[in-house]
Design brief:
Blueprint lengths: L5 E5 L1 H4 L9 H11 L8 E4 L5 H10 L8 E5 L2 H5 L4 H18 L7 E4 L17 H21 L3 E3 L2 H7 L15 H19 L4
Parallel strand pairs: 1-2, 1-3, 3-4, 4-5
């Protein structure tokens, strides 16, 4: 049987800003899937710190990829929210990204997972922002609701890591030195409680 292939699309939370490559959640997810008997190749990651939905779209237009992938994840939007982009502009570009993710999964909607935006309003970094934490959290909830509705309407899977990020955002050892991005322990929690169970539901039994 051929190895399962994962493509992770996103921004700093997908690339694992501030952690070693093996500690980012795509690598941790693959490691945990292997523990459960899946023969997985190393993940392919198309993500960069700071990317918005339109920047990820531009990157996809020129990226050298090798579809179809057995699992495609899409976690994007925090930089749209941070930069103050309108929700309708985000939704328009997210629709286009979701269509690309479905294409890369060979139109197998259950093999596409939308992953929610974590809530950075609870982090020390947010204290330097002029916006109140409640305003940040409210905007993130709005963007997540737009993404979730589109993902579920397409028949794809939705993974909520936002609740976990709110619980871990101020806990010792859960963030990187920048006071914003998750550390390895928080990514491990995302994988164990949300990403791994959903991925196992969507993939065939090993």
């Amino acid at each position: 049987m051929a190895e399962l292939r994962l493509l992770a699309l996103g921004d700093s939370y997908t690339v694992g800003e501030g952690v070693a490559p093996g500690a980012a959640w795509p690598a941790q997810l693959v490691a945990r899937l292997r523990e459960h008997g899946h023969d997985c190749a190393a993940p392919t990651v198309l993500a960069r710190t700071g990317w918005t939905t339109d920047e990820l779209l531009a990157a996809l237009a020129t990226a050298t990829l090798a579809p179809p992938y057995d699992l495609v994840t899409l976690q994007i939007g925090v930089n749209d929210q941070y930069r103050g982009r309108r929700a309708d502009a985000f939704a328009h570009d997210f629709d286009a990204l979701l269509a690309q993710a479905l294409r890369l999964a060979d139109a197998r909607a259950p093999r596409v997972l939308g992953v929610s935006i974590p809530d950075w309003s609870v982090t020390p970094f947010a204290r330097q922002d002029a916006r109140a934490p409640l305003a940040i959290a409210t905007a993130i909830d709005q963007f997540n609701a737009l993404a979730r509705a589109r993902v579920l309407r397409a028949g794809a899977g939705w993974v909520d890591i936002t609740s976990a990020s709110r619980g871990a955002g101020q806990a010792p050892g859960q963030l990187c030195a920048d006071g914003l991005h998750p550390g390895p322990a928080q990514y491990a929690h995302w994988v164990a409680t949300a990403l791994l169970p959903t991925a196992r539901e969507q993939l065939p039994a090993p």
